[in-house]
Amino acid sequence: MPAPEEDLALLVRAAEAAGPIALSFWRAAPKAWDKPDDAGPVTEADLAVNDALQRMLTGARPDYGWLSEESEADASRLDARHCFIIDPIDGTRAFIAGQQGFAHSLAVAEGDRITAAVVHLPAMELTFTAFADGPALLNGRPIRPTECGMTGARVLTYKSAVEPEHWKNGRTPPIRREFRPSLAWRLCLVAEGRFDAALSVRSVWEWDIAAGSLIAQRAGALATDRHGQPMRFNSPRAMVDGMIVAGPRLHGEMRAGMV
């Protein structure tokens, strides 16, 4: 079986190949439509990137399972020792709007844990990488999270996550809420210390957080579900029960303050 470092090299090559495909549609009025069941928008670029990634990755690792936001569900992935977990374009709304904050999120799971990860933002020329037991890097340079506590922390999340009902004693925490369109990018922004935490009180899709969770962990942050439990991947539902991603001190304070 390939080592995590070899899988990471494959993911980097695939992400770098996906970037020009996405950029050929970006700011060029790509065809877009809404998925069924209010699952959000999708564009022809999402599908083109997905097809290219699937050909490249499964061509190189035919025995690996495949889980992607833009592919039909394939239950055979649950029996595979390794599985690719892919979001071809994370932040599709930003992509449609011509904004730079969209990403290719690529990960490999061995069993239920992530062992190699890339989050690539082609319009910004940013590439975050990590592999099991290796460093977290941004464009080849080591990154690390902040060491702050709750008061004044800059937290990437949506508005309802800081409503009083999610916090003990009905008290909204003393944080500064901010937002970025790509969930994968949010985790990487925490990993590099540009923000202090990323939070979701709702369940999140595995393809949105698989790569970013390993990058955050290898940088030195804690990345757990909303209850403080380890994230598990390649699950039947392909979802994680919320998330808290932050440096150890802030992670502990956030978990202690949540209902």
Structure description:
By secondary structure, the protein is an alpha+beta fold. The chain contains six helices and 16 strands. The chain has helices at 4-25, 44-60, 92-96, 183-191, 206-219, 248-257, and strands spanning 32-34, 41-43, 65-68, 82-90, 103-110, 113-121, 126-131, 137-138, 141-142, 154-156, 176-178, 197-200, 204-205, 222-224, 239-240, 243-246. It has a seven-stranded mixed beta sheet, sandwiched between helices. It has a five-stranded mixed beta sheet with strand order 11-10-12-16-14, with helices on both faces. A hairpin with a 2-residue loop joins strand 5 (103-110) and strand 6. Helix 1 runs antiparallel to helix 2 (44-60) and helix 4 packs parallel to helix 5. Keywords: Magnesium, Metal-binding. This is 3'(2'),5'-bisphosphate nucleotidase CysQ.
Q: Kindly, what is the distance between the CA atoms of the first and last residues, rounded to a whole number of angstroms?
A: 42 Å
- In which order are the strands of the major sheet placed? 3-4-5-6-7-8-9
Can you identify the CATH class of the largest domain?
Alpha Beta
H/E order of the elements? HEEHEEHEEEEEEEHEEHEEEH
Remind me, CATH topology of the largest domain?
Fructose-1,6-Bisphosphatase, Chain A, domain 1
Shape summary:
globular
Mean pLDDT: 97
Q: Give the structural class.
A: alpha+beta
Count of discrete domains: 2
CATH architecture heading of the largest domain? 2-Layer Sandwich
Q: Give the strand content.
A: 25-35%
Structure annotation, total helices = 6
**What is the number of strand segments?**
16
Radius of gyration: 17 Å
- Uncertain stretches: none
**Name given to the CATH homologous superfamily of the largest domain:** Fructose-1,6-Bisphosphatase, subunit A, domain 1
Q: In this structure, how is the largest beta sheet organized?
A: 7 strands, mixed
Percentage of residues in helical conformation = 25-40%
Family: Belongs to the inositol monophosphatase superfamily.
Organism: Paracoccus benzoatiresistens
Protein name: 3'(2'),5'-bisphosphate nucleotidase CysQ
Keywords: Magnesium, Metal-binding
